[in-house]
Each structure stands twice: as structure tokens, then as C-alpha cells.
Design a protein that fits this description.
The protein is of the alpha+beta class. The protein folds into two domains: about 45 residues; about 45 residues, no CATH class. It has three helices and three strands; from the N terminus they run αβββαα. The radius of gyration is 27 Å and the shape is elongated. The mean pLDDT is about 80. The protein has a three-stranded antiparallel beta sheet.
């Protein structure tokens, strides 16, 4: 005697198979995104967002400031601006005075 699955059973197994394939596809996309993110970081790490040339890291009173070797733009990483703004106003004047020509 052969067993024929009901419509509900077939629907269940099709749904399980779809979810398995969907999860595999999401993992593939995540792996590609991670790979692309790593490539972008390698390409752009320590390069000026404005002109694309190398950034030089300067240590100024415990803050790592990135300064462009070409356009002389000043770049602060996440949290560094908050650290600077918590200091007294005179500190900001001195801080930005260091980078004036």
C-alpha cells in the first residue's frame, strides 16, 4: 500500500524547504556584504573623505585626530567630537588653533 501525503503535509514540507532555501540565501548575502565591507575598508581606510589622499593620525591631548596630508582637513572619529565638546571653551580654541597654518 502506498502512502499519499495530504495537502497540508505537502504544504508544510514545501514551506520548510522554502524557509531553508531563504535562510541559505540570506547567509550568502550576509557573507557577500561582509566581504564587500572588508574590501571597502581596505580601499578607504585612513584616506581623506574629501580628496582621497592619506590621513595622518595626530595625538592631541588623548584624542586621535586624523589630518589630511593634502587638503589639511581634520577628521574626528565617533565619540571624539563629544569628548572635545565636553572640554572647556578655551580648549576648543586651542584645539583648532593647532591646525591653523
Amino acid at each position: 500500500m502506498t502512502y499519499k501525503p495530504s495537502e497540508r503535509e505537502e504544504e508544510y514540507f514545501k514551506r520548510v524547504e522554502f524557509e531553508r532555501k531563504q535562510k541559505a540565501e540570506e547567509e550568502r548575502h550576509k557573507a557577500l556584504a561582509d566581504k564587500e565591507r572588508a574590501q571597502m575598508k581596505e580601499l578607504h581606510y585612513m584616506h581623506c573623505p574629501k580628496c582621497g589622499l592619506n590621513l595622518i593620525e595626530i595625538d592631541y591631548q588623548g584624542i586621535k585626530v586624523d589630518k589630511c596630508s593634502s587638503c589639511e582637513g581634520i577628521w574626528l572619529d565617533a565619540g571624539e567630537f563629544e569628548f572635545v565638546s565636553m572640554k572647556e571653551k578655551g580648549f576648543l580654541d586651542n584645539f583648532f588653533g593647532v591646525f591653523k597654518k
